[in-house]
Amino acid sequence: MTPSLREVVAKYRWTFSGMVAWALQRVTGVLLLFYLFLHVHTISKLSQGPAAFNEAIATFSSPFFKCLEIGLLGVVVLHASNGIRITLLDLGLGGGRQRQLFWTLTVGLGLAVFLAGAIPMFLFAVLGAG
Amino acid sequence: MALDERMTVLDALIRVQREADGSIGFRCSCRVGMCGTCAAHVNRIPRLLCSTLVKTLDSDVVTVEPLPHYPVIKDLAVSLAPFFAQWRRARPAFRPTRADAPTLAVIGKDSTFRQLTATKRDCITCGACYAACSITGMNARYLGPAAINKALLRILDPRDAAGADRRKVLDHSDGVWRCHTQFNCTAVCPRHIDLTDSIVRLKRALVRPGKALTV
User: Fold this and answer.
1) Minimal CA separation from A7 to chain B, in Å
2) How confident is the model at residue A1 (pLDDT cuts 50, 70, 90)?
3) Are A78 and A28 in contact (CB under 8 A)?
């Protein structure tokens, strides 16, 4: 029998939050890998001269890509904040509180840092305020 | 089926067996959570049937399935052969430093070893950690949390002489390094042993061989 959404959330919100953190780290890691390929591809345009590089960069100045940049910030912050959590646990500094670390450090601090960067990016880069 | 207020999942299964279907197969023994015989998947979480009150599941339907990562013998009864194959690889038996000692070595209740391992010794080999671990599901050669925790206890024991042999098994791609720190084993352990912590401590000890292993 398929479990209800409420049961799944209850199971993974706390009991298996370590598994959720692991899955998020893998997903964000793969996304960052894709981004790195795109980044290297864009930088490689420099070898074809300033015009080719400027053309490639111009592609990313559309509002769509600015929104993707905000997403990229979220992926980087999530990967980094969970990476700090894993490092603390590997160093034995978690004190048996990996779930609390996930919700406070990975999610809480990660969300705060993301919003601190995403709101100005949205206002200035996407809406063109100021 | 009518449920009583303090009914466990095991009680419910026994009632089903007596009143509805006598052919249902499952295992149980002590009924007080100390033998580790009755572990099964209850609402997709490995638990001891005898220690899980139905009312605490907060679910209208209780789904009971055999533990994953084990061959099923019948209905809910699984073979723990994969679990104990890895358990043996970790060399769980005590190997004394002085086999010819005239008296038994005593580990006093106030000894450092006892203090350090107080939260690590209660494994009842129920196999729930092995079932919850996603790595054992993907790689049958992985030692698994319980075997690694047992090896840690032996390595920490000042009377034991087989630490070097155990370190060889642990310091391997199918040993502690296969653990991805998902904490599933710790989440389901009915004895509340922080198994992931044991694995992480062994990882640190293996990369710092000169340092004393502590818990």
Assistant:
1) 8
2) low
3) yes
Domain-located, residue A93: yes
Residue numbers of B between 126 and 165 with CB closer than 8 Å to A: 134
pLDDT tens, residue by residue, B154-204: 999 888 898 889 999 999 999 999 999 999 999 999 999 999 999 999 999
- The CATH number assigned to the domain with range B81-207 reads 1.10.1060.10
Whether A91 sits inside 8 A of B43 (CB atoms) is no
Query: What total number of domains does chain A contain?
Result: 1
* Every domain of chain B and the residues it spans: 9-78, 81-207
What does the alpha-carbon distance between residue B174 and residue B144 come to, in Å, rounded to a whole number? 9
Q: Search chain B and give the residue with CA nearest A11.
A: B45
Q: At what angle do helices B145-156 and B163-170 cross, to 10 degrees?
A: 150
**How far is the alpha carbon of A88 from chain B, nearest alpha carbon, in Å?**
11
Cα A96 to Cα A90, B48, B183, B190, distances in angstroms: 11, 23, 10, 16
CB contact under 8 A, B58 and A18: no
How far does chain A reach from its first CA to its final CA, in angstroms? 55
Q: Which residues of A touch B61 (CB under 8 A)?
A: 1
Cβ of B61 within 8 Å of Cβ of A1? The answer is yes
Above 0.95 for ipTM, yes or no?
no
Q: Count of CB contacts below 8 A, A vs B? A: 48
Residue A106 confidence (pLDDT) above 70? yes
pLDDT in tens, B27-74: 999 999 999 999 999 999 999 999 999 999 888 889 999 999 999 999
Number of other CB atoms surrounding residue A71 within 10 Å = 12
